[in-house]
Amino acid sequence: MSLRVERLDRQSLAGFSCGNDELDEWLALHATPATGHGIRTYLLINAAERVVGYFSLAPHLLRRGEAPRRLTRGASGNIPAVLLAKFALDTTLHGQGLGTELLVRALETILGAAREVGGRVIVVDAIDAAARSFYERHDFQPLPGAPHRLVMKMSTAARALNIDWP
After folding, report:
1. Taking the CA atoms of the chain, what radius of gyration do you get in angstroms?
2. What are phi and psi of 122, to 5 degrees?
């Protein structure tokens, strides 16, 4: 299956459905305006030029007090991060392993940005228990006291993707 990722611009978002009304509505109504507020959305597009997935990224600061000790070593204040703010795959592609492919693309995008502007961790807020399980299978760790907020060190993502990291 031929899939490519490109940044949201003027593509048609019609017909996208991931099975979660909140994520579908966010893409249709809020993704474009959110670009002006620092959130970048990337679309997964198939050979028929249809949007079949997306992820949104935002700069973030993880509060030192909410992070486990292994993440705060050497940090003097809050920890610079990238928030994987939204993540969804069209229902027509569920169960084909493409969620993992979309996550890999998101992590590659995050690492590319962090290489330029910095960042120490990737943060994601799992929308439900199934999403939490998905992220945990891909080496994200829940924060103490916040089971649906998960983190991964940039270096862990780089190692998993076999990308040289600073």
Report:
1. 16
2. -110, 130
